[in-house]
Design brief:
Layout (H helix, E strand, L loop, with lengths): L1 H9 L24 H5 L7 H11 L4 E2 L1 H11 L9 H12 L3 E6 L6 E5 L4 H5 L5 H11 L45 H6 L2
Antiparallel strand pairs: 1-3, 2-3
Helix pairs in contact: 3-4
Main location: nucleus
GO molecular function: DNA-binding transcription factor activity, RNA polymerase II-specific; RNA polymerase II cis-regulatory region sequence-specific DNA binding
Pfam families: Forkhead
Amino acid sequence: MEEILRQFLSSSNHSLKDSPFPMIPLSFDTSIMSPTECQQPKPQHSYIGLIAMAILSSPQKKMVLAEVYEWIMNEYPYFRSRGAGWRNSIRHNLSLNDCFVKAGRAANGKGHYWAVHPACVKDFERGDFRRRRAQRKVRRHMGLQVEDGDSSDEEGSPGSDPSPPIFPTALWNFNCAPRAPIKSFTIEAILEHH
């Protein structure tokens, strides 16, 4: 392809600087990566699974974002040769999934520690990283109504553990305040009140 482009440019009065299209490298320079990094398979775990494994591997059962990144790269060299996209996905998953909670400010004052929500610890320790199940457990833990879907989540069922939380309640910051139930309404009912 590069050769065709060179021939085209040399056979006409065109030049790259006149081109409205930027020159895009057509090959990927793998010389900066070790051969093993180039051949690493993509992990089979979801981002939720990777984050949970990282956090639960810590003696304190909490990590700052940079530590999560570092753990993932150390355990899965596949990510060392990837761009920033996977880091964005990690941040996104930490912030938007109820199974992860902020567990206090970092010692340096920059950022927060992240922990696994106490309602999800046992499942995650067993390697069960199913997002919907984790969300139901968190909502049930907070006293919110949960649709029936997986009866194995029920309190008192085999596998449930009423053990005390890992972190003091004062450190929990559930980025998911209980919401009022959505009530159905009609346009007429709204207009009656105005």
